[in-house]
Amino acid sequence: MNPSLIFNPNSELLEGPVFDKENNYLYFVSILDCLVYCYNPTTKEILSVKLDSPVSCIFFLERKKILVSSKNGFFEIDFNTLQQKFVFQIDIDNLVRYNDGISDPIGRIIIGTMGYPEVKEGVGNVYSYFKGEYKTIIKNTTISNGLAFSADHKFLYFIDTPTKKVAKYSYEIETGEVAFLSYVIEFKHDAFPDGMCIDKNGMLWIAEWGGACISQWNPLNGEKVKEIKLPCKNVTSCCFDNDGNLYISTAKEDNKEDINGGGLYYVALN
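RE: above sequence
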């Protein structure tokens, strides 16, 4: 399970890998560079489109066409033509930006915010957007990060990074309403939980900021199952491809000698 570096844009903050399993494309972003990437695992081609503000989260529309969140709103990007167009914006404070997000089976968008350009405690929220309307479903977060659904979509897992915990919410697919149930995982070491995905067995895979690894956790008992080491300290997010293997995004450390952070890694689990 040795990670291999497949793309190194030397990004300060590479984030948000998501795999379009229907069309076999990987998408990810370089948040502060305002860049959105499309990677073809078959041909190894990588395309990019630059927006005019920090980007964070990608939602699939159709083949090589996505919706991406940026500080200035949600944009449709067509990687067939490399064109972009503004679609909508949620009424967020000027001193926040979007961060991690996810969509539910009926196409509802769930996305969190955090302070920008400065991180400030409690200024973020998690929003739900559907058919032109939005509402706040989780309030007063600081760094809204990983989101993952249980297989039956009855539960939503969520990370507000400074809490060092994974929260579990009930989720009503008809209304998009959530209700806090409990904290199911707590980090008791130096690292912080960042992005997250869930495997077919219901185990959570969490990117460890400051921990130089991806760790697998059982949300039923809160126990850490295993970890995969990365050659850089700040690991930001992860996702599975069609074969159950992992793509992992990373970020730079503060020191300029970090040559391994800020790249995209691949780990063959099967």
